[in-house]
Amino acid sequence: MMSKKFILPISIILLALGIFVGMKIQNAVSDDKISSQVKKFNDALIVTSRYYVDDVDSQKLTEDAIKGMLEGLDPHSVYISSDQLKRVNEDFQGSFEGIGVEFDIINDTLTIVSPISGGPSEKLGILAGDKILMIDGQNAIKIARDDVPKKLKGPKGTKVVVTIHRAGMDDPLEFEITRDKIPIYSVDASFMYNDEIGYVKVSRFAGTTYDEFIKAMNDLSNQGMKKVILDLRGDPGGYLDQAFKIASEFIPKGQKIVYTKSRINDFNEEYLSDGGRYTDIPLVVLVNGGSASASEIVSGAVQDWDRGLIVGETTFGKGLVQRQFDLPDGSAFRVTTARYYTPTGRLIQKPYEGSKYMNKASTEVEGFNLEHKNDTQDTARPQFKTPGGRTVYGGGGITPDFVIKLDTLTNYSVQLRRLNLFYIFAERYMTNNRKSIESKYSSPKEFRDGFFVDDNMLSELKNMALEKDVSFNEDEYNKDLDFIKTSIKFQIARDIWSNNGSYMVWVNNDEQFLKAVTLFDDAIKLAKLKQ
User: Fold this and answer.
1) CATH T-level topology, domain 187-404
2) Counting Cβ atoms within 10 Å, is residue 194 exposed (0-12), middle (13-18) or buried (19+)?
3) Which of 151, 318, 350, 445 is catalytic?
4) pLDDT in tens, 447-473
5) CB count, 10 Å around CB of 530?
6) Within a 10 A sphere around the Cβ of 354, how many other Cβ atoms?
7) Which of 77, 291, 293, 502 is catalytic?
8) What is the pLDDT of residues 116-139, one digit of tens each?
9) Distance in angstroms (rounded) separating the CA atoms of residues 384 and 344
10) Quick check: 384 and 392 in contact, CB under 8 A?
11) What distance in Å separates the CA atoms of residue 230 and residue 180, rounded to the nearest whole number?
12) pLDDT (tens digit, 9 = 90+) per residue, 158-183?
């Protein structure tokens, strides 16, 4: 009979051996299942390529198959072609190589909307409103929008010759531009709204966003900033590390900013704040339905820790974590591997089925609701408590503390925007009035407070609209009159002072922003800040 002292060790060895063999068998079965499906697709591809009525592109068939496979999973698992991947990387790396202009096609003509600050075009004196007639001696009139980057972008150090028509000059101008590395800024604007309140607009979370943000905040602090409005409206997200770093600037050290859950333990992560310089500054964050992913991480952490107030409209609800896997041909695909949760445990992701989002009735009620007292009751929406005892809501996206829904534009204004008439009007107006405006207003703040769009300007805009077959509708025009005046003024300010000037004009008539300005006493009380 076997001694008892040998039974326990042998049992442990047998158990371990059983687990090991079981794992091997499971992996073999799993591999067999995958192999059989790969063979199934391979057979279908071969037969289709051999017998289809027309010649087929096997690469396209394979790419379509990958797309179809990923579309069945969720809205954000996607295939990215090699060309698309280059553009995506460029957008989020924070730079590209080219001549450095923002452009638009207006009346079939390639028009400079704005030279990028510090780029080669600006250094040569190319101006907003300049029209490019020729590129390297080839006609650029009626050029397709997609062809413009192909002509103007290129490796640093290479040259391109553009022929430009400038308003007020009879003869065209020729510029030889040496391409250079062009920064793509993700902090669109930063300025002092008044003596105390700073404003920072972040348009996406790219590779350089945190550095841009810190520079903007430090500049505003040197100008006397005591409070700040962080505008994340329309920000679709981007890099998680950039959102984490920006949130850390406001959230005290050691507090959780976001965490992820996955069926794979290695993908479960939590991010604790490193702390920053601005943990004691009164804060209001602006969001809307276009604020997604990284924007929701920042706003969710601010709200969950009672660190500041969130104002605007419920965010998009993109809380799925993707990992990118590169393929040998330069393409890639992204697969969802985890979900994002805010510090109180709210799932950021809104409901979906396959690649389609599920429509869900909104429970937002306009009005001050610091504790959501004015929200209609919705038992389907899970409730969570902040450390301060405040109720915040889950169910997808970040619901603001104060909901303000902006008015929908009338068809008349939609047509003015669709035809780019505000820009075209401002371009014509500046041809004759640039010098007088620049001599009268030395700063965008002076222009914001002192310049008014008069009846003559409005009449000219209406006539331009009629020339484009936009019928005048008096009721719609009167309803949107403030918007129309602000849009004209916005374009004029942008022409002279770029984004800082245009945003300074725009927020002065922005209901969400103007409400945010009034909420700092509540934000201070909520965060228990000493003032």
Assistant:
1) 2-enoyl-CoA Hydratase; Chain A, domain 1 (3.90.226)
2) exposed
3) 318
4) 999 999 999 999 999 999 999 999 999
5) 5
6) 10
7) 293
8) 766 888 888 888 778 999 999 999
9) 7
10) yes
11) 31
12) 999 999 998 777 889 999 999 998 87
- Please give the pLDDT value at position 258: 97
Candidates 94, 342, 81, 85; CA nearest to 204 is 94
Let me know if 303 is exposed, middle or buried by CB neighbors in 10 A (0-12, 13-18, 19+). Answer: buried
Decide if 293 is catalytic.
yes
Nearest to 367 by CA among 405, 337, 421: 405
The mean of the pLDDT values for the chain is 87
Region(s) of the chain under CATH 3.90.226.10: 187-404
3-state secondary structure of 175: strand
Residue 156 falls in the annotated catalytic set = no
Beta bridge partners of 202: 187
CA distance 480 to 42: 59
pLDDT of residue 65 exceeding 80 = yes
Q: Helices H, strands E: what count in the chain?
A: 16, 24
**CA dist., res. 415 & res. 411, Å (int):** 6
Question: What pLDDT score does 97 carry?
Answer: 85
Q: Could you tell me what percentage of the chain is helix, strand and coil, using 3-state DSSP and rounding each to the nearest 5? A: 40, 20, 35
Catalytic-labelled residue, pool 180, 304, 401, 495: 304
Fold of 96-183: Pdz3 Domain (2.30.42)
